[in-house]
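Exercise: predict the fold of this chain.
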Amino acid sequence: MIQKVVNELRSEITGGIISKIFQPLPRELVFKIYVPGRGEKRLMLSADPKLGRIHLTQLRIPNPPAPPRFCAYLRARLVNFRIVDVSCAADDRVVTIACERRSPDSINKLALILELLGRDSNMIIVDTETKFIMDCLHRIPDKHSHNRIVLPGIDYVPPPTNPLRSRSGFQSDHGETATKSPSSLVLPDGEQSFNDIVDGFYMSLLTDSLTENLRREIARPFKSKVRALSNRILKIEKDIKRLQKFIGQGKYGELLKTKLGKFEKGLSSVNVTEWETGESVTVPLDPALDPVSNMNKFFVRSAKGKRGIGIALERLKATIAEKAALEELLYFIDEAGTQNELEILSRQMALTKDIPRRHQKNDPKKTCDSRSLSQNYLEVIGPCGSRILIGKNSAGNDFILRNKARANDIWFHVKDAPGSHVIMIPKRDDMLPDPDIYHAATMAAKYSKLKKSWKTEVLFTEVKNISRVKGGLLGQVKIGKYRTIVVDLRE
């Protein structure tokens, strides 16, 4: 199959100019090639251990914002080169794309070599004249290879032939042909090319890989932030314990006040009778300080503790709330099923990063138009006719609260877990039917991280008791008074 695909590629892209190169996945590269008279072609090259392949693709693949090392090197070396030949080795494992760029006084000739060798699959750019390896996707030093070294700056040596390898199709790990291979498909006469067959065969796998890769890329900074907030919470809790000890030292100062004039400077401790219980208490002292200075030290620490603990408790509350909001964002990332949903989330979440407002091109409130915002929530009808709005992501949560909810509508959210905000809008302002309240609470549990739990506790309150956090994350709110209801998703 590789030979058949390469034969088609030779006629399809020879003479084409490489205009763009990007790397959507760790072992996949996409070349945009302009072929005079035929327009733009997209060439997929994969050195994946199990899914290694080369073919033209119709799939529109996103271009990551920052190119990885090998991709950046290829952009600097191969963009604007003309493809002069595409060839395949006799054993079907090595594909060579020969390229050149002419200048008034010289011709620069390079070759991009795709080796489909299972775990050792690789992409290598070689100077055609000197046969030197300029760079490679996967660098293989001597200690990692029983056969050969693959590193920049050394001579390129083709991989040894292996007569046990099948020549019938694209190969999986350990050189064995995959049980499901595009080579097993039959080409309808005149209807489809071999490149189309391979592209169709791998399209769903590639789409899934791109989706999961995008999911990881979007989630990575938020996971890092959650870890940082977790560490901050531990530090604040440690500070609170220290401040509580400082507050308790005020009692030592009061006890020393009754003992002043009865001990001298230089003692490391003194025993004082506790006036409430009559017990003897050992008060630690600083031998370098006189009795009055020791007493005042305890009073100063106690005052510091009382001032600081309120601030620390507020910081702890705000940090826990921010961490919960970020975990909710991560929940929506995990729940997104398609690249389109993830890309929408990515645009929305750009507003949550620590970017000064002057660097933001758009006002956050105007980032999404009304049509796209309307796709960020669901609407269902309760048993008694109430409208129930369910946020599909943080922007949807924020939108239904700001733009759809009235003061006396009812807001729902699963307790102590990430999930969607749910708004119940009753048919009549003076009527809050219990079946609709239970149904809305069930929706809040169903669209949450606790959806696999049987019994789930859900908070609910009037919208007027909910306020957005000034300067907080998208969809982050503060809750006033509320009630709870337990729902059983088995029902």
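Check your answer against the key: DSSP finds nine helices and 19 strands in the chain.
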